[in-house]
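ESCALATION

Customer reports they have been waiting on this structure for their group meeting. Please prioritize. Original submission:
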Amino acid sequence: MFPAMLRMDDVDTLVVGGGPVAARRAGTLVKHGARVSVVSPSLCDDLRRMVDSGTTRWHARPYERGDAEGRRLVVAATDSCETNAAIADAARAAGAWVNVADDASLGDLHFPAATTRGRLTIAVATDGVSPLVSRRIRERVETEYGDEFAGLLDLLADAREEARDRIDTQPARRRFYEDVLNSDARDSLRAGRPNDARARVSEILADHAGRQA
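Update from on-call: job pushed to the front of the queue and completed.
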């Protein structure tokens, strides 16, 4: 499998199925900005809440072959293996990418176990073999990379343009970023002192810029 990060803003997607698995897939897509439609005669409570909130459209009927036309991504998440396989075939024929919830080998992509900290996303996948293993690894990652990384990346993003202006070479800028990562800025963020962290990043930047003189 080829690992990639995709921008899903306003991407037309279809989720077929009304149970908890379909709800998790739809929720992930909505979270990342996709336009999500669900086809199913009935919905679980989580999906119904998504429909009621306006984040998801619901077509209250069984899947029909033409439903995949014009979609960029189709998720087959019914409780029937045969139906999911047929949906995958029809969606692929319509030019859509496919995720099949109960048989990863039939799909073009998987939904990894992912942890997000602001701009940081860490995803774990096992080629569809064991979602449990993916979740266990993700849980370990979550303990290692806390919310302070969201703030740290925001600080680095804010400093990036100034670093380009004041530090001449890429190797020198890399050393600046390494020094920030190895500094106590993360400790300040973890302790709820973002201003101290920002001041520390500015101090490190000034030090590296001074070496250019």
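Sent to customer with the following note: Residues 148-166 form the longest helix (19 residues).
Escalation resolved.
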